[in-house]
Amino acid sequence: MLVTMKTPIIRVKDVHKSYGRGPNRFDALKGVTFDINEGESIAIIGKSGSGKSTLMHVLALLDAPTSGSLELEGVETSTLHGKSLNQARNKTFGFVFQQFFLTANSSVLENVMLPMKIAGVKRSERKQRALAALEQLEMADKAGNKAVNLSGGQKQRSVIARALVNNPRIIFADEPTGNLDTATGAVVEDILFNLNREHGITLIVVTHDEELAARCDRRLYIRDGLLVNDTTEVAA
């Protein structure tokens, strides 16, 4: 039987990222190489200053490599600029951040609709899709509430709903439970891993939490800008 090899959804080849010049130059990434396959759950692990957040920003097209190659679904991302770059980022990725980044005095519904507004989706469709995402996260009854009045867990559910409205192929979760208590954090983790395992969304988690990382299929350990270990065993 002929087996068709699948192109990785993200391919990273000898990526470097530096800031500053001359004696003030800082090398945040020092030649990292790896592939990410569609449907994987991956933890990027490292201490503060290790380069893990820089790596996430590069993978998510929020920052460009200084050198090396980054391919997204077979397309070299250095060829993407302006509108094409924004479209690739907005249509492919969803983001879940520790700090939530919700507009405090806007409603939950308006916050969740924001990525679709950026994408140019009509308001009627934005509302329909946002309400469907909130329903999925059991937050539809909070749609009219201001974000400032939500609990931490409700804010993170709203953020996950916002991440889902453009039907992303990949979700980036940057310390997604860092501002939550243990019980609420466990619920948020379950939601993210359900989206990965039941819906096939590729999940990339940036964390220093070994217990959270252990739930992922694969773990990338970053130290001083280098990929020092790529643990690919499926977590028990």
TrEMBL record:
It comes from the Bacteria. One of its GO terms (cellular component) is membrane protein complex. Gene3D superfamilies: P-loop containing nucleotide triphosphate hydrolases. Keywords: ATP-binding, Nucleotide-binding, Transport. GO terms for molecular function: ATP binding; ATP hydrolysis activity; transmembrane transporter activity. Residues 10-236 form the ABC transporter domain. InterPro entries: AAA+_ATPase, ABC_transporter-like_ATP-bd, ABC_transpr_LolD-like, MacB-like_ATP-bd, P-loop_NTPase. This is Putative ABC transport system ATP-binding protein. It comes from Salinibacterium amurskyense. The lineage of its organism: Bacteria, Bacillati, Actinomycetota, Actinomycetes, Micrococcales.
